[in-house]
Amino acid sequence: METGDLAQWRQADAGGVFNTASGRAAAVRGPARSGRFSLALSISGADGRGEVQAARIFRWGTRTGAALPEAGWYGAWFYFPRRYTDLRWWNIFQWKTKIADDRTDPTYVLNVDNRGGWRGPMYLELWSAIDQRTVAASRVNLPVGRWVHLGAFYRWSEGRWGRVTVLQDGRPVMAARGVRTAYPSADRNARQWAVGNYTDRVRPPDATIYVDDAAVRAARTPAAAAGRVAR
User: Fold this and answer.
1) Domains of the chain
2) What pLDDT is attached to residue 225?
3) What is the model's pLDDT at position 117?
4) DSSP state string for 39-99
C-alpha cells in the first residue's frame, strides 16, 4: 500500500477489488504496521436484517502474472481496532477457484466468531466451503488494538490430498489434511486468494479493519512457510 493506492494489488492484471453494497477498500495513512499506509476494509449497515456487506481484495497471480503456487504461503498482518460481536460468520481471509468467466466459488475460508457467547473474545474458525462445514477452530483469541499476523500454508488439490495449516503470529492454530481444496478448472487464473471484511451481521454494524504487509510465496511444507513469517 506504500504507493498510497491499491495499484500493487492490481499489478500484472493479476488482482482486483470486489466490493458489495457498502463495502470499501482503500489505502489509508494509518494505522500501519510498516511504512505510512495500510489497507482499510470498511462496511456499514451489517445488522443482520439486510444484504451482505463486503470489502474484498484479491490476488490470482504473482507480480509477473503467473499463476499462484500449487503449494504456498499466504499471509498478512491484521489490526482489529475493537472487539466485534454478534457474529454468525465473518469472512476475513479466503481462497477461491475461478471455474468459468461468470463463476468463482470459495473453497476454504478463515471466519471470525465469538468465544463462549455472542459478546465473547474473537477467534478464528477454518470453514470448508466445499464441504459446507467448519473443520477446525482456534483455541487462541484474536487480539484487539495491536497487529496480529495471520498466515496459512495452502496446497491446492481437486482430490483429497489438499492441506491447510493456519498460523497466528507464527504459531500453528488450525489444520486440515487429506482434504479437497480446489474445484476443477482450466482457467489460468483459477487459484485466487483474498483478504476482506465480509459478513451480513456484526456489532457494531459499521466496521473497519486494517491489513498490511500481505505476501504470497511458494512453500513446500507448513514448516518452511512458518519460518518466513515477518516479525
Assistant:
1) 11-226 (2.60.120.200)
2) 60
3) 87
4) EEEEE---BSSS--EEEEEEE-S-TTSPPPPSEEEEEEEEE-SS--BS-S--EEEEEEEEE
